[in-house]
Amino acid sequence: MNEALWLLDSRGRFEVRSTSRPTPREGEVVVRVRAVAVNPVDALTGPVRRFVTPWVRYPTVLGSDVAGEIVATGAGVTRFSPGDRVVGHAAGQERVRNTPAEGAFRNHVTLLERVCSELPGDLTFERAAVLPLGLSTAAAGLYEADQLALPFPTAPGTSRDGEPRDGGSRDGVVLVWGASTSVGSNAVQLARASGYTVIATAGRKNHDFARSLGAETVVDYRDADVDEQIVRAVGSRQLVGTLAIGRGSLAHAVRIVRRSAGTKGIASAYPDPITRLRSLVERPRGIRISSIWGGTPVVSPVGPAVYRDFLPQALADGRFRPAPEPRVVGTGLAAIPGALATLREGVSATKIVVAIDPAPAPYAVPADAVSADAAEQERDQ
Q: Residue 22: which of 374, 380, 381 has the closest Cα?
């Protein structure tokens, strides 16, 4: 039996229901879900949810962060086989996919191969599950052509253009405002893997955490002179890009960019109407502000550049680590609403995770017309 946690309407009513087992199409895989993480977008309700994802039809299945085992592969998928352990970005809530069959909160989920990575044997599903949406959002901000457009990260010894990638050896600095968040902790590591020095902000208790991810300098975002400290830390170097993560980050980022040499690009992970207005105001000063959408790598070249070409080796050799730390709050689909409630209470340098399917039944791809039709109808709801 396959089950999913269905969101019945935008008000936030959930129910675990039986559902059809998915059949992968070309470029897709089906994963037996072993762990999921929850994100702020999953916890939205009411008018805010309708504003952020107006295209979603109800009932639907939420969730972006999946770790588990491949049970079936579609046409054209050659790098995965049944039994492979993977982590992947479930794209069911993205406008271009928009199907509950690809929502993470289920026993078996359809994922796009292009945003899946194999896991080393010593990495648990619960630790891996913290990665996908935070990783995709950080990668979108750093690498998408309409964002900061920095060079892609590469694993050691695989530089695409002959330039050094390890150890922050490129000229220039990336500022990550909010390094202890899910997006920020991935952004610090990705920027380092692209060869840049990273200056970051975090609460004082998380400074060592941010440094352990590769930040050269970490400043407390609550300090009265935080902007001045960062400008001094950048010094005469070029600020090649800024990621502004979280409420209030954009105003600080603008003040810092105005006073620093560099490309004047800011990618904001808090895309609200104020971000758009600020972009128009700052444009005459040469400051370019863009709003990040974390699902963009699902369809752009950034997805495979990170999930296929970089992450598997970087996880295997320890050069990239899943961050922030997981906090497992329950087991099974029915535990997810409680996990969302915990997330709404606030977390710091941690990500809320739920273990799924600890003793799975054997999987069989639907072979009869009735099952296949049911899976198709679920995709098209």
A: 374
Question: How far is residue 106's CA from residue 94's CA, in Å, rounded to a whole number?
Answer: 17
pLDDT digits (tens, 9 = 90+) for 251-270: 999 999 999 999 899 999 98
pTM comes to: 0.91
Place of tokens 């610090």: 188
Considering the domain architecture, whether residues 290 and 141 belong to the same structural domain is answered as yes
* Ramachandran quadrant class, 349 (left: phi over 0; alpha: psi -120 to 50; beta: rest): left
Nearest by Cα to 301 from 81, 143, 90: 143
Confidence of residue 357 (pLDDT cuts 50, 70, 90): confident
- In a domain? residue 315: no
pLDDT digits (tens, 9 = 90+) for 367-379: 443 333 344 445 5
Peptide bond into 59 cis (omega under 30): yes
Q: State the residue range of the domain holding 26.
A: 2-131+322-379
The token duo for 144 is 């998408």
Position 149 in a domain: yes
DSSP 8-state secondary structure symbol assigned to residue 262:
B
